[in-house]
Write a structure and sequence with these properties.
The protein has 303 residues and is an alpha/beta fold. The chain is built from eleven helices and 13 strands. It has a single domain, classed as Ribokinase (UDP-N-acetylmuramoyl-L-alanine:D-glutamate ligase), CATH 3.40.1190.20.
Length: 303
């Protein structure tokens, strides 16, 4: 079952204490779709400039990602420049050039409008709403957002959340959106805006999922090498939604499995810059790491 994703395709310039990379492939839609493609088919809607090279198109196509919705506009592709210090959970933005992304208006090809699984990556909530108006009858709508939209377009974001099943954001954004310092209370407030499920990304500390009747916690996979956390959240979302779409099962027990698969995918992304680790990733490696996380959290039966 295919997934529809709307987001950004970008060139990233990144520096960390462990290295640097210039003008590498990035953007929320790229990370999400590449990750999800290990589980199911993905259709991508985004915009690039006339400077976007064929080699990146070829890579996305090689992952089976549908590109009918990838617009090419006159001008430069979206660019982001950032730096990480030793606290790899926090990115310091040095430069953002929206370029063709500034005028992006997502128009879905007719074949995409029947999508049952939709991921609205981190873009203007008004554009997210425009996309939802074009989708016929989705089974699952998942969404990401950020502090910029929470403070700058709160009303539009709240209208979007009323039509969203699952919201995937980080811990600080949950507190900001709810205007509540306690995370558990904040999660309840945010779920009151519409999403039945709230997934809270906590970087190297793992993930929390808040549902109607339970809270689920999954650890991050312990790694020996971490080079670049850029795109880890979108990669997580790709694994999470990709697994759900491939199994066509939205029961809570399966949501928990999907959380772990998302965590696994994010753990691979941070081991290299850009999407380089995912380029040569084999599905067997994903299954192996899933089993290892399961062992990390297995503490036996109650005596």
């Amino acid at each position: 079952m295919s997934i529809l994703v709307i987001g950004s395709v970008a060139f990233d310039t990144i520096s960390t204490p462990f290295g640097a990379a210039d003008d590498v492939l990035g953007g929320s839609a790229c990370y999400f779709s590449t990750s999800a493609s290990f589980f199911t088919d993905v259709n991508l809607v985004a915009v690039v400039g006339d400077d976007f090279p064929q080699q990146h198109i070829d890579f996305l196509s090689s992952r089976g990602i549908g590109l009918e919705g990838l617009q090419r506009a006159e001008g430069q592709t979206f660019r982001w420049k950032g730096r990480y210090e030793y606290d790899l959970n926090e990115a310091h933005t040095l430069d953002t050039q929206l370029n063709v992304f500034e005028q992006f208006k997502p128009v879905l090809p007719e074949s995409y409008r029947q999508a049952e699984y939709v991921f609205l990556a981190n873009i203007d909530p008004e554009l997210q709403l425009e996309v939802l108006e074009q989708v016929k009858n989705p089974k699952l709508v998942a969404c990401d957002t950020m502090n910029f939209w929470i403070s700058g377009k709160r009303d539009a974001l709240i209208r979007t959340l009323a039509r969203v099943d699952t919201l995937v954001i980080n811990e600080a954004e949950v507190r900001q959106l709810a205007n509540e310092p306690n995370l558990v209370k904040a999660a309840s407030i945010v779920r009151g805006f519409g999403p039945k499920t709230l997934v809270v990304k906590r970087g190297e500390y793992g993930v929390l999922m808040f549902g109607a009747h339970s809270i689920f916690s999954a650890p991050a996979y312990p790694l020996e090498e971490v080079f670049d956390p850029t795109g880890a959240g979108d990669t997580f979302a790709g694994g999470f939604v990709g697994y759900l779409a491939s199994t066509r099962n939205l029961e809570e027990s399966n949501l928990r499995k999907a959380i772990v698969f998302g965590t696994v995918m994010a753990s691979f992304t941070v081991e290299r810059f850009s999407l380089d680790r995912l380029r040569n990733l084999e599905y067997q490696e994903i299954e192996d790491r899933y089993r290892r996380i399961k062992l990390l959290t297995d503490f036996g039966q109650l005596d």
